[in-house]
Amino acid sequence: MFSSWKELEESCFSCQKCSLSETRKNLVFGVGNKEAKIMFVGEGPGEQEDLKGEPFVGKSGQLLDQYLELIDLSRKTNIYIANIVKCRPPGNRDPKEEEAQMCISHLRNQVYLIRPKIIVCLGRVAAQRLISPDFRVTKQHGEFYEKNSVYMMGTFHPSALLRNPGNKPDALSDFQKLREKIRELDLL
Ligand code: URA
Predict the structure, then answer these.
(1) Does this model's pTM top 0.85?
(2) Ligand 1 within 6 A of CB of 45
(3) pLDDT digit string (tens) for 32-51?
(4) How far is the CA of 4 from the centre of ligand 1 (A)?
(5) Which domain holds residue 152?
(6) Nearest alpha carbon to residue 84 among 33, 34, 119
(7) Cβ of residue 89 lying under 6 Å from some atom of ligand 1
């Protein structure tokens, strides 16, 4: 575990532990406030993220930013956003088990340095990796699970909301629950 961002970033940007490093245009490390109390974790970079080197900058990112704004959160001020894998899986497929396993130490190190009080998992891949392997987004979205004094919550992935807009009211209610939890813990 690295105790400085500089060491972690150097190790991450030079990583060639899996074959995603061969096809990436840019490594997508993370974005936001490194002292944030609230962290969001997605699955892995898509095409736009790979081109720009920043998480959630495509259409799904625009939707995420709208939901964040509704509850006074923003990547520019009070949250940090990262992904389970830092390099784009070709064709936007799910990360493979071995890719996620290779990459997760980078995310764990980010969590170690940030020490967030709340982690929101965006979608199944993040929720199954960080909350529980059998996590079902449709059944368990919006519920908080306390793990080592960190409150973890899973909600719909913004790309899934773009495909199935019928889930947007549920996603909105998850963000309201997040807002309540932030108030309860007096985090902002
Ligand atoms: N989807 C993700 O899970 N992460 C991103 O950064 C972009 C799209």
Answers:
(1) yes
(2) yes
(3) 999 999 999 999 999 999 99
(4) 25
(5) 5-182
(6) 119
(7) no
